[in-house]
Amino acid sequence: MPLDEVGRRYADSIYQRRLHEISGNEEQEINQLRNQHASRGSILSGAYIHDHFKLLLERVDTLAQAKLDGLVKAYEKSGLPFDEVAFRDVKGEVVDFCHSQQHSLIGSMNQEVRQTLGANTPTGTLEALSKQIISQIDAIISRLVCDLAIKRDEKILEDRKTKQVYAAALGKEWDVFICHASEDKKDFVDLFAHQLRNSGLSVWYDVFSLKVGDSLRRKIDEGLAHSRYGVVVLSKHFFSKEWPQNELDGLMSREIVGTKVILPIWHNITAEEVRINSPILAGRVAAKSEHGLEKVISEIREAMGL
User: Fold this and answer.
1) Alpha-carbon distance 126 to 15, whole Å?
2) Least confident of 42-46, 50-54, 63-67, 120-124
3) Does residue 247 have an active-site annotation?
4) What DSSP designation does 21 have?
5) Which of 94, 206, 232, 292 is deepest in the core (most CB within 10 A)?
6) pLDDT above 90: residue 1
7) pLDDT per residue over 23-59, tens digit each?
């Protein structure tokens, strides 16, 4: 789930604070650089251009890091999972920011070269400088995205470890059991199960959990008994078959004490069709496959308090 308006405002405040901190020193650092080169008689040289460029590039690097840090902290403060959705959200903003800074830096340095070297500017200098800026900004982007990917994976691994400890304390081995009709595997359930597991959850799904020689009934009973939640993919195929409905009955029996266990997903089925087949489930808020896997997984995780 992406950040809301308050989260983005918080992230921007962190960035603006860092911008204010370094902006106060920028003019002073540039003046010191000019004085140093003036004292050496190199103020009109390529060496001054190089040092000026290096100074501005360091500023871009610092601000890009501040942009990333602010967004990551906003996710942490919001209590949102730093999952693949968050990774793409932050990555997109940081990359866009770096590209905007790249454009500004090219313009600033081209102006600085013309003011410093004037008619003595060697042919190809501006083009070479622009290529160098693009290369250096790309390197900054690559490093920040790598750091962000590490942050995402660390968070997923930490959450997985915490869930395993919590589940073990409850006598649960899996976060979710996926109850479905086999006809729905190809167009929805297979990809859903894989992406749900990739989001950091432990998933009982027959493709993951059954091995040659296993007793099907025994393994399913084990999965039902040792999973915190049951994700039930409701479809026309589901209601036409006895086996998945037996699994649903098993999950229903665990809700008698009032604890929410069943998390429904509607797949290619209407509210009226669900109501006819299961009035109890028709009255529950459900995720819908037509809204896309990303939203379905986000809603399932939210229902689990993640």
Assistant:
1) 31
2) 42-46
3) yes
4) H
5) 232
6) no
7) 777 777 777 877 887 778 777 777 878 888 888 899 8
- Pairing type for strands 287-288 and 227-234 reads unpaired
**Beta-carbon contacts of residue 221 (< 8 Å; ≥ 6 apart):** 250
Residue listed under structure tokens 């070269």: 113
Q: What is the pTM of this model?
A: 0.55
Q: What is the rounded distance in angstroms from the CA atom of residue 20 to the CA atom of residue 24?
A: 6
Q: Averaged over 76-105, what is the pLDDT?
A: 90
Q: What is the three-class DSSP state of 246?
A: helix
Measured distance CA(87)–CA(71) in Å, rounded = 10
CA 25 to centroid of chain Cα atoms: 34
Q: Whole-angstrom Cα distance, residue 234 to residue 223?
A: 19
- Using CA atoms in the order 20, 133, 70, 13, what is the torsion angle rounded to 10 degrees? 30
Helix axes 125-169, 46-78, angle to 10 degrees: 20
Q: Say yes or no to pLDDT of 210 above 50.
A: no
Identify the active-site residue in 112, 158, 242, 247.
247
Tell me which DSSP letter residue 11 carries: H
